[in-house]
Fold these 3 entries.
Entry 1:
Amino acid sequence: MPINAAMKFSMEGKKSNIDGFCEDLSHTGIRFTTRQALKKGESVEIELNTKDLKFKPLKAAVEVLRVELADDRYRVAGTIIDYK
C-alpha cells in the first residue's frame, strides 16, 4: 500500500533517531528512504508518524532486505519481524 509518511528509526543497539520517509507499507514489509546508509541484514526499529493517516502509530522491528542508492538517498526495503 503506498504511504507517504515521515518516520524515524534507530539502529540496533543505538538510541539516536534517524529521519526517513515511508513510501510503501504492508503487513509484512516496508519500503522507505533515508540519507543513512544501511546494509542488508541489519536490524532497525522504526516509528511511523501516522498523525495525518487513518491508523494508529506504528512501531516495529525491521530487518533490512535490500538497499539501493537513488540520487542522494538510500531506498531501503525490509521485512517487519516484530510489532512493538
Note: The two ends are 20 Å apart (CA to CA).
Entry 2:
Amino acid sequence: MKAKTAKSLVLIAFLTLLSPGVALADTKRPASAWPLLIAKTKSAECAQILKAAKIAFNSTASELDLDSDPIRKGNVGLVLAPIGREEGAQGNQTFWFDEKYIDSNKDVTESESKASQYWQKSPSNGGIFVVDQKPMNWQGDWYDLCFVDADITKDKRDGLNDRLQKESQSEMKAIPEGMVIYSNLWHRPWLYHNSKSDLIVAVNPRADWLNDSGNYLPDWAIYAPAGGSKVKQIGIIRFGPRVSAFKLLPDGPLRELAKLLDKIIGIPKEDEGTFRATPRLRGEAAIAWANLALRPWALAEPANTKVEVEAGLKTWAKGSPIYKQQYAQLKSLYPQAEKSLANYYQTNGRMAPAAAARLAKSSLETAYRSNFKF
C-alpha cells in the first residue's frame, strides 16, 4: 500500500506540474502531449482508445499491454483484454471478456495444452473479430488477431487456429476468410466496443513488432471494420518519441551511465537457446530507462535488491582489469547521473528541487538494479 501511494504521488506531481512549453529529451513535443493519437480523420473509436491509452500510461503498469485492470475500471468500452493469474484469473484463463459482446470455446478448467478461440458475437459492418490463442512453448502462447466475414461457418472459424499456426509469423495479410491483422505473435490483442457507432474495434498493442523497431513503449495500432471481411487501420497511439531508450534520457552523465550498464550486461559467449537470458535482461533494462524518462511512477521492482546488486558487482569486478575499470567508471558516473536526473525532473516536470532530488534518487536506483540478475 505504501509503495502504491508513493507512486501515486509521483504521478500527481509529474502530471500536475508539467509545463506544456518544456520539451522532452530529443524531441520538441512537450511532455504533457503523451500519449498522442495519430489519425487522418477524427472518429469516436480513436478518441475512445486514446482515453484508454491515457489510463494505461498513467497506471503503474511497467508495460502498457499487459495490465488491463485500470482500463476495465475506467469504463471505456473494453470487451476483451489480457488478464494475468496474479489478478485472480480462474484456471488457465488469460483473457477477460464481456459475454455480452464476445463468445469463447475456452473452458477455464482445461489444460494449458489446448488451443482456444474468442470471437465477436454480433457483426460490425459485415464482419467479426476472431482471436486465437495456442500453446507455443514454456515462454507462453501465440496469438492471432483476425477479421473475417460474419457468415463464416463454425468449421472454418475453428480451423483458423490450426491453419495459421502452420504458417510463419505475420502482420496484415489477406486470407480466404478475411484479413489477418497479426498471427503467431506473443502479445494479446484488445477489443473495444464503441457505444456511439456500435462498432467493435481492435488494438494491436505492440504494433510493428516484426520489424523490431526498438521502441520500448510500443505503439498501439487501431483497426476498424471496413465493410464485408475487410479491416483498416484507423489510427496509432504513440506513447513517446520513436527513439532508443538511451535517447529518451538527458544527454550527459545519465545517458553515459545507461550505456555503460549496457556494456556491463555484455554479449553472451554461448547460445542461450530459447531462454535468451541476456537479450531478455537488456530488454527489461530498456523498458526501465524508458519509464524512468517518461513514467517514473511505473518502474517495476527488479529481481535483486541494492545490497545483492552491489555484492554481485564487486565479485564481477574482480574478473578482469576491464571489469575493474568499468566498475570504477560506474561508481564515478552514478552520483553525476543522479544529479542530472534530478535536474531533468526539476526542469521538465517543474518539480521543486527537494522533490526532484528524492524522485531521482529512488527512480535511478530502481532503473540501475533493472540491469542485473545475480
Note: The CA atoms of residues 27 and 102 lie 41 Å apart.
Entry 3:
Amino acid sequence: MAAGEFTFGIEEEFFLVHPRSRNAVARVPKRLVRTCRQRLGRHVTHELLQSQVEISSPVFSDADEALAEMRRLRRVVAEVAEASGYRLMAAGTHPLAAWTEQRHTDKPRYQALVGDFQILGRRNLMCGLHVHVGTPPGVDRVELMNRAMPWLSLFLALSTSSPFWNRRDTGLLSYRQAAYDEWPRAGIPDFFADEAEYQAFCALLIRAGAIQDPSFLWWAIRPSHRYPTLELRITDSCTRVEHALALAALFRCLLRALVRMPELGRARGAGRRRVIDENRWRAKRWGVDAHFIVEPGGALESCRGVLDALRALVAEDVRALGCARALEPLDAMLARGTSAHEQLARYHAGLAAGGSRREALRHVVDWLIEASVPK
C-alpha cells in the first residue's frame, strides 16, 4: 500500500464576522468570494448562508505539506475578509449569531434546500470539517465505511467547537451535531452490504424524488459522490488549523489500517448501530470527557483510552504515511480540551468578572477570531 493510495483533502467551513458587533455578517458582497478565487482559484466557495465561506483544499499526499497549505489558505481568506471589513472565524456554531437574522446564498442548490426543508434550512447556521481520503483500487468504500463507524464518536469528541446556540450555553460540547439530528438523511448511516447496495438505495431515493443525487445524503460518514474517497463529516469546524490536520491524519491512518487488516471491525452484533449512536450522544454532550461503550462486552472506556487504543492500532500506518508530527496536537486536545472547552472557560470568566451574557460571548468571539487565523 503506497502512501499515494491514501491521498486526502480537507473542506473547512468558516463564519464571517463583523469586527464591531462580533455578530455573523448577514449580507456578504459577492466580490469577497470573487477576490478569494482570484487569489486561490476554486479552493474558496460560498456556503448555504451568506455568513459562511468554505475552503476546499488541493489533494494532499504529505501531512506536513497539507498543514502548510491549509495555513496559507486560511491566511489569504482572512486577509481578503479583513479588506472587506470582516473577520474569519472557525467554530461549529457562532456564539452570538441568531439564525433568524441570516440570509441564504442566492444559488439554485441552496434555494432548493431552503424551499424543501424550510426552517431546517434557514437555521442551518453551523460549520463543519470534512475530510476526504482516497482508497486503493478495488476497495469497497461502503464496506470500509461500515468498519470505520465505531470510531466516529472519537473524531467528534476531538473536534467539538459548538457549545453555544442562539446566544446561549447549550450544555453540549457539540450542539451542531444535535441540530443536524433534525435533518433527514443525517446522523449515523445504516450498514449497507457494499457499494452496489448503497447505490441501489440512492437510486431508489432519486426515483422517489427525495434526493437529486447522493450528495444529498448528509450522514456522518459517506462515500463521496464526486470523488473516489471516503468522507468523514461528523467533525465540527476546528478553530485551530493544527487540530483539523491532526484529525485528518488520524482518519487517514485509520482507513489505511482497515485496508491493511481486512478482518478488523468486520464482526458486529445487531445493536452495533445503536451503540455507535449512543457514543455519538456522549461525544456531543461531554466531548473528550466522555466515556464510550466499547464492543464486544460493553465496557466503558474514556476518550483517552479509546484514542490510545486507536493510536496503537495505527502505529504502523503512522510511520508509513509520515503522520507522526501531524498527530502531536492530539495530546494537547485531550489534556487541555478542544475549542468548546476554551470557549466555555472564557465565557464563564467573563461572567465571573461581572460582564453580561452578551459581553461574555463577545470575549469568546474575540478569542475564536484570534485563534482561527495562523500567525
Note: DSSP finds 16 helices and 13 strands in the chain.
